[in-house]
Design goal:
The chain is an alpha/beta fold and 436 residues long. The chain has two domains: 278 residues, 3-Layer(aba) Sandwich (Aminopeptidase), CATH 3.40.630.10; 138 residues, Aminopeptidase i, Domain 2 (Roll), CATH 2.30.250.10. Helices cover 28% and strands 27% of the residues. A nine-stranded mixed sheet has the order 1-2-3-13-4-14-18-16-17, sandwiched between helices. The protein has a six-stranded antiparallel sheet with strand order 8-7-10-5-6-9. Strands 11-12-20-19-15 form a five-stranded mixed sheet. Keywords: Aminopeptidase, Hydrolase, Metal-binding, Metalloprotease, Protease, Zinc.
């Protein structure tokens, strides 16, 4: 086995493990923070004074967004090479008073988060994870991440016998058809108290951790998402594909993180992974918030320093791209159909739904050529709507040159997506070179 192949396999194994440990944006940021701290990055908080002219640091916001950076040279003279991605994925989120009963079954009401493909959520083994906020014995508000890990719920399909047109037309009512079933109710007695279940889970977790904090006495709020417990896997006749939930966009988060951890060159380097991209990025933790801008302002010192730094900087917005589906070739623009395992994709849109221009696209092509990474192009058909990314938002807020790129993907926004093993490593290779 060649050294390059061994590196690719190690990288893929790490990616699968990262996705498995990151069922929500909270868990993804927790996993990234652990890897950064293990590599010697120092954790900062937004409430403290920073003195970070040189070194390796990271800071989080809302437990669901993260900025990590390595500074080696003066920013105003040399700028900073940045990579942007997002931690969130389309999913089903539990409503605040989610517990409902119907026909003697306990269910949880859910909201659809983002532009999810809903049909694949039926008949899957679902678990539940997220953040719970609670009052502890010291009368303090605290927060914990929880994850049931095992399958605790399912959304059964209606039998074909009761919906003979299901294969021809199947409309899903988000309110009526999506609440997952957790358990049948006993003939006598009331339904389990869902907040009480959360409280018990938090206290069980606290009991197993040294110096974890005072016991929880009341659940105040929560942000919980259902997810498929099927593990990420390498599949295909020749192990060509990565099949997993949340490839959009944990794959980009992981490749950017690995490139930063391997960074030992002279460039200043920064990775930002924002929450809430799938719903428009309008939040304190989203790309339309001021998280990245606030961090850069601290590093640059004043407005003139910020302007000089951004003029010398570059942003790669990494978010998955649509691979040409062989069963739906007509949905793609001729001559611009990305193939899986044929390299990362430069995404272009004349109406600036992507931030790429001829200068930034040319630079990315050059970086790919320098490390022998193939590169592809994507543009949406003129008669179809185009999606967007954090790229145009960041370019607008910072005035920084930006290119939108991503790994070709099938079944984007499904509960289980498909990407190429080679493409993930290709992306890592060029991002590592870009950081220097």
């Amino acid at each position: 086995m060649t050294e390059a192949l061994m590196q690719n396999e190690d990288f893929t194994d790490g990616l699968l493990d990262f996705i498995a440990r990151s069922p929500t944006p909270f868990h993804a940021v927790q996993s990234m923070a652990e890897l950064l701290e293990h590599a010697g990055f120092q954790r900062l908080t937004e409430t403290e004074q920073w003195d970070v002219s040189r070194g390796r640091y990271f800071v989080t916001r809302n437990d669901s967004s993260i900025v990590a950076f390595a500074l080696n040279r003066p920013l105003t003279e040399h700028g900073i090479h940045m990579i942007g991605a997002h931690t969130d994925s389309p999913c089903l989120k539990v409503k605040p008073n989610g517990a409902v009963t119907a026909n003697r079954y306990l269910q949880l009401g859910v909201e659809v988060y983002g532009g999810a493909l809903l049909n694949p959520w039926f008949d899957r083994d679902l678990s539940l994870a997220g953040r719970v906020s609670y009052l502890n014995e010291d009368q303090q508000v605290a927060h914990r991440l929880i994850d049931w890990q095992q399958a605790i719920a399912v959304i059964p399909s209606l039998a074909i016998h009761l919906d003979r047109e299901a294969n021809d037309q199947h409309a899903i009512n988000k309110q009526l058809h999506l609440p997952p079933i957790l358990m049948p109710l006993p003939e006598s007695g009331s339904a389990p108290d869902f907040p009480a279940l959360l409280l018990e889970m938090v206290n069980d977790q606290l009991a197993t951790e040294h110096d974890a904090g005072a016991k929880a006495v009341k659940v105040l709020d929560y942000e919980l998402s259902f997810y498929d417990v099927q593990q990420p896997a390498v599949i295909g006749l020749n192990d060509d594909f990565i099949a997993a939930a949340r490839l959009d966009n944990l794959l980009s988060c992981y490749t950017g993180l690995m490139a930063l951890l391997d960074h030992d060159g002279e460039h200043n380097a920064l990775l930002v992974c924002n929450d809430h991209e799938e719903v428009g990025s309008v939040s304190t933790a989203g790309a339309q918030g001021n998280f990245l801008q606030s961090v850069l302002a601290r590093l640059c010192g004043d407005e003139q320093g910020m302007s000089r730094t951004m003029a010398s900087s570059f942003m790669i917005s990494a978010d998955n791209a649509h691979a040409v589906h062989p069963n739906f070739v007509d949905r793609h623009e001729p001559g611009h159909g990305p193939l899986i395992n044929a390299g990362p994709v430069i995404k272009v849109n004349a109406n600036q739904r992507y931030a790429t221009n001829s200068e930034t696209g040319a630079l990315f092509r050059h970086w790919c050529a320098t490390v022998d990474v193939p590169v592809q192009s994507f543009v949406v058909r003129s008669d179809m709507a185009c999606g967007s990314t954090i790229g145009p938002i960041t370019a607008n807020q910072l005035g920084v040159r930006t290119v939108d790129i991503g790994v070709p993907t099938f079944a984007m926004h499904s509960i289980r997506e498909l990407a190429g093993v080679k493409d993930a490593f290709y992306l890592y290779t060029v991002l590592r070179h870009y950081f220097g």
